[in-house]
Batch of 2 targets.
Target 1
Amino acid sequence: MKVIIKRVLFLLAVIGIWQLVYSLGVYEKIVFPGPLQVGQALITGFTTGDFLNALGASFRHLFSGLSLAILFGTILGVILGKSKQADETAGMYLIALQSIPSIVWVPLAIMLFGFSEFAVVFVVVLGGTFVMALNVRSAIHSVPPQLVRAARTMGTNGLSLFFRVEIPSSIPYFMSGLRLAWAFSWRALMAGELLSNGPGLGYSLRYAQDYARMDQVIGIIIIIGVIGAVVDQLVFSKLEKNVMKRWGLLKT
Amino acid sequence: MFLQINDVSKTFDDKNQGSFEVFSGIDLNIEQNQFVSLLGPSGCGKSTLLSMVAGLESVSEGSIVLEGHEIKKAGTDRGMIFQQASLFPWLNVKENVMFPLKSTGSKKDAEEKADRFLQMVHLSRFKDHYTHELSGGMQQRVAIARALAMDPKVLLMDEPFGALDEQTRHILHEELMKIWEETKKTILFVTHSIQEAIKLSDRVIVMGTRPGKIIADFNIDLPRPRRRDDPQVIELEKKVMGLLEVEINKVLKEELSYESHY
């Protein structure tokens, strides 16, 4: 059976069970809406433009936050990857910082920047930077010494060695870093927006909760999940796979 | 003299065990256009010596002089071929060969050179392929073309065919001989295979170990192509084998006695 058919059938089964539980009236309708209500909420949300506005705002935060995270992460990663001194001094702390869930930064961001969109972007930047930096650091470390030696015998050294050998050689790992930075930033974005004063998808989620609109809550959760999966599969995983194939790290 | 290795020593500093001397007092003069093999058991420092000529390893004592210039660092006047082809996977075959030419001359010039040397190693058909699409033997031929494209004075080869299967090695021996006759490069060739050294070289330098030193220096005047069943070749092989056996036994004994300490 084709993979796509399996997936569609599975989804239909899950929706079927959902509908069944709903119809049996196990839970109150207000806390447990059925698939139809959620679908209705999604359609209304999109036709009135509420969800689109929220999505637009979220992507704006994500774009500025992720761009900065990639920039800062790359700079940090290159410094730690190239300088043993820097790595010995700060490398451990980077791992510690990376292990902090991004929602933890939200109170700090709100205290510093108030309930502003900037506070949300700040959380997204922190969410993506450290994981990016760690991956860029391993990317630099992953450059085969043999290639560096070979390049040196061809008269390449210094900056030229960095740009012509070390950077291209580390691109596959850089791509993995990019994918992880996106995933971490996306999570950080939702955490940040959930506690912000909007606009944004996370804010809409909390707003729906405040008004006890469970159908909207579930609808937005579905949107968040779908976007996460689609961007990962269509953009970052694809990019990473293509690069791996091109670099000969993946057998076709 | 073309390439002089004057009383050269190599010592590695080890933080834990003090310094370790690989070899000392190595003296060698290599003439232009010669094919010279450095032959020896593992640990004799033959690859280290080659890396020092390449400028990848520092010289602890003594000096290495190429055409009157002392070697201090790596440069395009010496092309090195490693056991692994060490090609750049993000470049295709032709771009790999053009890599050392980027800073010298025009792009057109580089392309012409790359085409010429790819033809020399019979890989013109594969110039647009990526390196991971090639077999090990083909990759090594790209590496040879890449080194030749720089037009180096010396070609340094560090067990270049050690990782290949017997058949491929055989074919590449013949190709290397043709290339050498065509380009008349000076070749310094590191190997641990007696047959390979005798088959290819004008001169075989046999190195011993613990500490590394030169124990014999043969000029081989036999006509090419050399056949393995030629009685003169067999005679030479036996002679070199006799010399190396002593060295290999020395290593074995040392390793065994080291073991029994525990």
Target 2
Amino acid sequence: MIPELGHFALVIALTLALAQAILPLAGAATNRATLMGTARTLATGQFVFVAGAFAALVASFMANDFSVVNVATNSNSRLPGPYRFAASWGSHEGSMLLWTLMLAGWTFAVALFSRHLPERMVARVIGVMGLVSAGFLLFMLLTSNPFARLLPAAADGRDLNPLLQDPGMVIHPPMLYMGYVGFSVAFAFAIAALLEGRLDAAWARWSRPWTTAAWSFLTVGIMLGSWWAYYELGWGGWWFWDPVENASFMPWLAGTALIHSLAVTEKRGTFRSWTVLLAITAFSLSLVGTFLVRSGVLTSVHAFATDPARGIFILGFLVLVIGGSLALFAWRAPRVGLGGGFSPVSRESLLLANNVLLAVALAAVMLGTLYPLFLDALDAGKISVGPPYFEAVFAPLMAPAIFLMAVGPVASWKRAELPALWTRLKWAFAVAVAAGLILPFAFGRWSPLVAFGLLLAAWVIAASVVQVRARIALAPQSGLSARIAAQPAHWYGMVIAHLGIAIFIIGVTLVKGYETERDIRMAPGEKTVIGGYEFTFTGTKDVTGPNYLATQGQFEVRREGDIRIVRSMHPEKRVYQASGQTMTEADIDTGFTGDLYVSLGEPVGDGAWGVRVYHKPFVDWIWGGCLMMALGGILAIADKRYRSRMASHAKLDAALAPSKA
Amino acid sequence: MKPRTKRAAWIMAGIAALGVAVALVLNAFQSNLVFFFTPTQVAANEAPRDRAFRIGGLVEAGSLARDSDALTVRFKVTDTARTIPVVYTGILPDLFKEGKGVVAQGKLGPDGVFRASEILAKHDENYMPPAAADALKKAGHPMDKGAFAGQKTEKKS
């Protein structure tokens, strides 16, 4: 009964989404307030019904209802509760429902927090989001029903993929989807601006917090995915340039360019068309990413051939959304206008350079990700593009972007003078060069790549210090704490996000430069020394988990030359009973200056095992840096200038009131 | 310089920089493409001798042998028509099994042994590397789902 209620709720949500798409947009086009006024109510209704459908799916999973195909395929009666909950979005169908729930949630949030926006803008934004939502609901109901029944019901489920039975996997997809779907708000704002034919600083100010929120979620989502891959895949890498990862990274690159471009549009009223184009791109890439990962096209492009309805629907939907919005852009962008001019040396130029570099990097990642798929789809041969390509391309493109990133906040808008910039930043530059020359010796070995990485990180940090000092020194308030408190939250957000990049670079540089990875054969009693630690393998024992049996390796870790055990480590090799699938569970000793990582390979005879013993210096700084970036984003949103200021908004309302020319 | 010429110069510089970037990207792309060959193609000398490539097929049942002192394994990859001997040193992924699909990346030695530098691990046991499935199909092997767990089949009610 519950699954049928869920299915029915989806059908109602679809009708509401269609109404939400048509009525407010028609109202905005014909300037009818009653029609425009329906937007918020319909968005709320749609949210309620999608949430109801989602709750029904979760209930089916929690109740082990194996008469639902989705549950029977992705869960098991012995699966622990939290994973049964997470299994709700473990399948293609469930993840589509989660996506739609997020979209309905963002739309509901727009409906709640847009009291101060002009009615016509709100109607269009909510209408566009309704269109997207209708597409997804239709897709689910026609091709991917999460509530489809299985007759006769299965006795027990086939279990959730063991790789996904992990706390990281419980929160990674919702975070990632919050980011993907969050860009739909920026997208809807962009489409609304194109329809309106005007795009100004006020518009940019409305879109900015939404875009930054989505970007922060996406950053955390990608970070969780990377962290999960590191400890769960059992081979200690944190980024593989796998198409699945690239699918989430491409919208992130577009989103990063977008939040910077939006800043220029708000402050200087320029970059307008480019900002709109980026908003369309970021959301289009989110759609492409969702479908790439979730449709099975990466497993095999011919998956479409086995289920043509799904493939054709997806392609049609993508063509409609991306093609339609680009056509609208081509038609309306000239009306949006270009905005004010600026000199070649100015903050605008630096941000433009940053945007161009991000766009080129995005194109390079896209080429490496999609080209093999195209070739395969055309039956023109099978190729793969591995990490060497992405590394060869990405680092040289990002290095200048990061170098300029440190200069940007110091440069003035409109026109900056190179000599003045040099005067302000020469000490920062000296510190950076010194760091690059000297610091690598502190880690044992100097190499050009490590030196360059540390130089870039030190440059960002030192330039941030210069900028913070100058800004606080110039503040009119008396007293240091008053001056610090007087600075706006969005500015602190930017500084922290940029420092996050520096922390991230330090992590990547040191782990690439000084990591030790050893895959060896170890018999009980054997030792190996790595990164200043001595690992002794003392044997294995069998342990039983809730739904798996495991062989647990026993390792004693000592500092080299010391007899005291500083830690014992217990990596596991698990066999999950329902699926019979084998899984490697690494044991990781996490530390501020690096991780010790042990995982079991396979038994190689005589009680000996193939073992991975890794030392990963500063690897956690990679994810710490990502968290700082996201935290910077959150601080930026918290800025009080985004919050309701009725007086000034009333003025904006007046300025933007529907003016029939 | 007049503002106009100055702006033109900046734009030219920008385009030149972009051109260099695109050239670098395409060059890196060209030199890092990894092509895929089936055992039959390798046997017919179609695969390059000096460049890394991928092979795929089934791990022939009973072909897996392990050197006793280290982590070196030897096995044969077959597309049911031809087989290629493979040697690999390192830890095999969890999903590596005799009789199951596999994709290996490496170089072909002068002795005709494929020296794998990487054995591809994938996330799902029902997953057949598409390249491996393709190799079998090209060799005219009936798609026997049982033998290699098939490609993930979508269940419908």
